[in-house]
Design goal:
Helices cover 79% and strands 0% of the residues. By secondary structure, the chain is mostly helical. The protein has one domain. α7 runs antiparallel to α8. The mean pLDDT is 92.
């Protein structure tokens, strides 16, 4: 199968996720700048989630640029990733509206953990289909950054109950690690 429909569908889901997140942000009741202060946690959680969705969209795009075609298994692996990412607006709103309380911060981490795991599985499914000697496999390499991300998410979840801001800082750290697009795929494709 060609990958075009999977790319188009995925791009649509990414766009809907971002749209839902921004619609979850409600305007303040007052007219002064002081009315914005209670919304800062909502805004910070939105910014972090927007960055995460952007990171996933960017890396998903690069990943599919290295792929030649897809199978039914790849489609399901992609849907698995999109499922976890589709929960982002819910956990983003819950975390921000509850001012980074332990349970919302922990559930945010669970969604990040499962989205990271789903992305890892998608890459492995694509590599299994295209072969270990494929351009895709060469561009992904050993994916240390992906594995480290999953470890940090897993550590941050219990930290949410000790100090939610430490867990939130872990989520920010992983986002910063991924902010720059992974040059491996561009380097391999550009050859």
């Amino acid at each position: 199968m060609t990958k075009g429909r999977m790319e188009a569908f995925s791009d649509g889901v990414f766009a809907v996720i971002i749209t839902i997140m921004v619609l979850e942000m409600k305007s303040p009741k007052g007219t002064g700048l002081a009315a914005l202060l209670p919304l800062l946690p909502v805004f910070f959680s939105y910014v972090l989630s927007f960055v995460y969705v952007g990171i996933y969209w960017n890396n998903h795009h690069h990943l599919l640029q290295a792929a030649k075609h897809v199978t039914g298994g790849i489609l399901w692996a992609n849907l698995h990733l999109l499922f976890w990412l589709s929960l982002t607006p819910f956990v983003t709103a819950w975390m921000g509206e509850n001012h980074f309380a332990p349970w919302p911060v922990a559930l945010y981490g669970v969604v990040l953990l499962f989205a990271g795991t789903a992305y890892f599985l998608l890459t492995k499914t694509l590599i299994a289909h295209h072969g270990k000697d494929s351009m895709l496999a060469a561009s992904i390499g050993n994916d240390r950054k992906g594995a480290l991300s999953i470890v940090v998410y897993a550590a941050a979840i219990p930290l949410s109950f000790v100090q939610p801001w430490i867990a939130f800082a872990c989520y920010v750290l992983v986002a910063v690690m991924w902010l720059l697009p992974d040059p491996r795929i561009e380097k391999i494709i550009g050859q």
